[in-house]
Amino acid sequence: MKLYDSRRAPNPRRVRWFMAEKGMDDVEIVDVDILQGEHRTPEFRRLAGMAQLPVLLLDDGTVLTESLAICRYLEALHPEPNLFGRDPKETAVVEMWTRRCELHLANPLMMAVRYGHPALAKLEGTDEAASAKQRDGAERMLKHLERQLEGREFIAADRITTADIVAVTGMDFARMIKWRPPETLVNVGRWYEAMRARPAAAAGM
Amino acid sequence: MKLYDSRRAPNPRRVRWFMAEKGMDDVEIVDVDILQGEHRTPEFRRLAGMAQLPVLLLDDGTVLTESLAICRYLEALHPEPNLFGRDPKETAVVEMWTRRCELHLANPLMMAVRYGHPALAKLEGTDEAASAKQRDGAERMLKHLERQLEGREFIAADRITTADIVAVTGMDFARMIKWRPPETLVNVGRWYEAMRARPAAAAGM
Question: How many angstroms separate the CA atoms of B156 and B172, rounded?
Fold first, then answer.
């Protein structure tokens, strides 16, 4: 298998972090430079179907995109440690929190960076008001996480899951525009520092 | 189990369509009126954790939100007909297309309606330029689907899957702003009419 990656980009980093938690080191990594537009070349589009990263190329030629589809496939190959849930109910709770963290926290923060960071302006165009609106949305979600993390070490289960990985990689990406979680959210702050201290945090950086 | 639903809303309709394909008729449906703000009352927020629909309330009191987390849980209870994939590779391909259809087609069309439809202006504020931008994004994704549907009956497998359900419910919702898929996309047009002719299309409407 080959993973087409792009260092520091938030969606590829989800997969790198996920693989590091699994201890997977048998996947060839191919670096694609998004800022140089390498994901928009005809060759890359022909491979990936769309100008998206990450891409997992299987040995039989099957191409997978979408970070969480790739992670779920890797979980089937390497079930332990479990990151998606052990039974239907736990799996549903993990997916619910993963999607909340993705749609209401990570994606808005990614858009805040794209709208707000000069180096990415060529992708989306800079728009400070749009960037602030996305940050505000993300911070509303963080208030939900603050309540969820009261007395808990992880977001969705008694161990790290995809929900934590999606949340922390989205939040880390927003450091590019000097964003930090509000200091009043003490449970979020404790959880965030614990996540950043994990060995897997270095993967893909 | 109880499903908190809202008629015609696109995310609850995914679950209703999914249940209809499964032939599930043993779930109690509770209608919540989004336009009247019933999902924003303190009682509903206390139940759901967030002001979101659909919500599946399990018999043990567990609350699930996020339409696809709910569908995956229902698939575990009612495995046939299979709508998420039969093995890790097919499951990954189905999830990839489901996410592409969600993030690049259904979600932009939902935002196009929210920004573009007067009755929803109280939720988001009307903004015709923002609505058009979202429609343009959705139509770029439809060009990918046009190629994918060449010689195929369904988007991601040899049968209907969550990818088709997410795509068609998103596209149907945009009929509220009189949107239709461009007629030049003949494969998309054929697939769209076939999906709308399925008995499950009536569920939740």
Answer: 19
CB atoms near residue B169 (< 10 Å): 27
pLDDT digit string (tens) for B93-112? 999 999 999 999 999 999 99
Last residue of a domain, one of B23, B44, B77: B77
| A78 shares contact with chain B (CB less than 8 Å) | no
Q: Which domain holds residue B23?
A: 2-77
| φ and ψ of A4, to 5 deg | -85, 120
Q: Chain B within 8 Å of A132 (Cβ-Cβ)?
A: no
Co-location of A71 and A92 in the same domain: no
Residue of B nearest to A93 (CA): B64
Count the domains in chain B. Answer: 2
ipTM over 0.90: yes
* Residue B32 and residue B40 in contact, taking contact as beta carbons nearer than 8 Å: no
- Residues whose CB is less than 8 angstroms from the CB of residue A130 and which lie 6 or more positions away in sequence, other chains included: A111, A115
Q: How far is A139 from B42, CA to CA, in rounded Å?
A: 20
Residues with Cβ within 8 Å of A81's Cβ and at least 6 positions away in sequence, in order, are: A21, A22, A159, A160
**Which residue in the block uniquely carries the two structure tokens 């614990």?**
A194
Tokens representing residue A195 in the block: 């996540």
Strand A63-65 relative to strand A55-57: parallel, antiparallel, unpaired?
Answer: antiparallel
Q: Which of A64, A77, A92 sits opposite B96 (nearest CB)?
A: A64
Residue from B92, B81, B67, B88 nearest B156 by CA: B92
Please give the model's pTM, rounded to 2 decimal places: 0.95
Amino acid at A53: L
Query: Which candidate in A74, A96, A155 is best for mutational testing of the B interface (most B CBs within 10 A)?
Result: A96
Contact B73 A89 (CB under 8 A): yes
